Amino acid sequence: MPNVIITLEADISTDDIYPGRYMATVLPTETPQYCFANRTDLNEKLKSGAFPKGSVIVADQNFGCGSSREQAASALKGYDLTIVARSMSRIFLQNAINLGLNVVLCPGIEAEEGHELAFEAGKVTNVTTGRTFETVRLPEARQAIIDAGGLIPYTRKRLLQTAR
Amino acid sequence: MGMTVVEKILARAAGREAVKAGDVLEPKVDLAMSHENAALVINQFEAIHEGTGIEVRPWDPSKIAIIFDHRVPAESPKTATNQKKIRGFVAKHGIAKFHDIRGDVGGICHQVLPEYGYVRPGFVVVGTDSHTTSHGALGAFSFGVGATEMASAWTLGYAVNIEVPPTIKVVVNGEFPPMVGPKDLILHLIGVLTAQGANFRVLEYHGETIRKMSTSGRLAVCNMSVEAGATSGIVPADAETLRYLREEAGVTDAISPVTPDADAVYERVVEIDVSALSPQIACPHTVDNVKPIDQVAGKRIHQIVIGSCTNGRLDDLAVAAGILKGHKVAEGTRMLVFPASGRIFGQALDRGYIHEFMRAGAVVMNSGCGPCLGVHEGALGDDEVALSTTNRNFKGRMGNPKSEVYLCSPAVAAASAITGVITDPRKA
């Protein structure tokens, strides 16, 4: 069952998730080492492999605000984290979908570090507290990109259709 | 049913009669802008083509703009190598709208694009930079995307699966008091809307204050619209837009302004009267933590920054130079100035502003993003405080999570440089 590894406040910026001084690093294989680099404890734990795949970050509103830097999404994706937030900034949400990072919009989510969450279509259950919260369904157009496995395969398919 | 300006632009770009908020469409892209992150766009662009047997070639190199600004001159071998790779791509595909690291035609992307007439009213502009909202100042629908989304646009020539955003109409009236201007307006508006108040929405600007505002001021307002989460800020094109494009950007071909219908449907209307507005300060660590200056005046400042895509334009430098004339930057405070483009730097030299800054003790730096995003210039020490005309004050923004950044207008920054504390320029 996925575990909540940290809960974060509102307005977590992409500067926080992936500081500007590492922006010259672009490869998805290299960006994860700088994930939350300004939060030394969290960064070290992520790098040490302390969290299994599917671990969850729970955030308040407006997660991923600020810069369009895609490294913020690719760094989180590198650890196969799931981000559950009360709301997300538009560009971050699109980057996450485009790269196949697992994101869940859940306006009412209440969870603490160490809690266990279970995901089903349309809802998240906090197994520890026994409470269930509704999630926001993504627009069909965005879901189509997720279903294709991300924007690269989605665009490749469209390119092949156009070329035919 | 009438359409907003962005609905009209998107309808045209998608070849439809009419669209409304919530519709999904695929608008043709008129301009696709990137900076150094084109290095990542190129990777993703190549990945899209992998295994298709289709030649890796952008749909229309004449519609791609690449401007080096984020880390110029390069701060590391890694950046320099990325820039080298991009130069190779530019040469291979004949991308003419390329601005390398140069003192004449170089600068920050959000200044270079308007300055060279690359953005026109009615355009759909995508940029791999969140402040791409800036170009709404010229009546374009202009929004930020990530690198993979840009690679997709380079491949197909249109943006995939775009939902038409709802629009908030912002009506601004009244005359700015002395020492109060567009930056104070946008900071105030972000405080009113909050950091996510316009998320997934367009801010469409109207009112006599906007009509009388120069393109420079409109660029600052649209630039920071993203700090309220907006997909785009937009000033429907008018006489000032045409004047700017003809006289300053040297555009000679046809320009077709797009304006909203009188019966356009807005999600809400926000009205602001600026006639009693005071200088505004965004306090750490969110841009919507906005206070009138009297609540923070006297705060000790270690570093003053004037410049960036928000406030590094000629009128910004003129205001700051005017205030600094005959004064010195306070002991214990350092001041950095970085004009938004090489052209502006040259104009500021000709008018003596650069001389005023240097005589006052400021360090004048090359055009670029510089200290704004904490990459390689002007980092702050532990517990230091910066007062800056840039657009973000997030924790760690200027390279150090143990420092603080306050945001303000050029007038406030210049007045505060003289005293070393946050100072109301009306009382200086």
Radius of gyration of chain A: 16 Å
**Number of discrete helical segments of chain B:** 14
User: What is the SS-derived class of chain B?
Assistant: alpha/beta
SSE arrangement of chain A, N to C: EHHEHEHEEEEHH
Mean pLDDT over all positions of chain B: 97
Quaternary arrangement of the chains shown? heterodimer
Distance between the termini of chain A: 45 Å
Report helical residue fraction of chain A.
Answer: 25-40%
Task: Give the biggest sheet of chain A.
Answer: 4 strands, parallel
Q: Ranges of chain A with pLDDT <50 over ≥5 residues?
A: none
What's the main sheet of chain B like?
Answer: 5 strands, parallel
Determine the fraction of residues in helical runs of chain B and give it as a percent range.
Answer: 25-40%
- Strands in their spatial order, largest beta sheet of chain B: 4-3-2-5-6
Pathway (chain B): Amino-acid biosynthesis; L-leucine biosynthesis; L-leucine from 3-methyl-2-oxobutanoate: step 2/4
EC number (chain B): 4.2.1.33
InterPro entries (chain B): Acnase/IPM_dHydase_lsu_aba_1/3, Acoase/IPM_deHydtase_lsu_aba, Aconitase_4Fe-4S_BS, Aconitase_4Fe-4S_dom, HAcnase/IPMdehydase_lsu_prok, Homoacnase/IPMdehydase_lsu, IPM_dehydratase_rel_enz, IPMI_cat
GO molecular function (chain B): 3-isopropylmalate dehydratase activity; 4 iron, 4 sulfur cluster binding; metal ion binding
What do these coordinates show?
The complex is a heterodimer of chains A (164) and B (428). Chain A is of the alpha/beta class and 164 residues long. Chain A is built from six helices and seven strands, in the order βααβαβαββββαα. A four-stranded parallel β-sheet of chain A has the order 1-2-3-4, covered by helices on one side. In chain A, strands 5-6-7 form a three-stranded antiparallel β-sheet, with no helix packed on it. In chain A, a hairpin with a 4-residue loop joins strand 6 and strand 7. In chain A, helix 3 (71-78) packs across helix 4 (90-99). Chain A is globular. Chain B is an alpha/beta fold and 428 residues long. Chain B contains 14 helices and 18 strands. In chain B, helix 6 (182-193) runs parallel beside helix 8 (215-223) and helix 11 packs across helix 13. Chain B is globular, with a radius of gyration of 21 Å. At the A-B interface, helix 4, helix 5 and helix 6 of A face helix 2, helix 3, helix 5 and strand 7 of B.
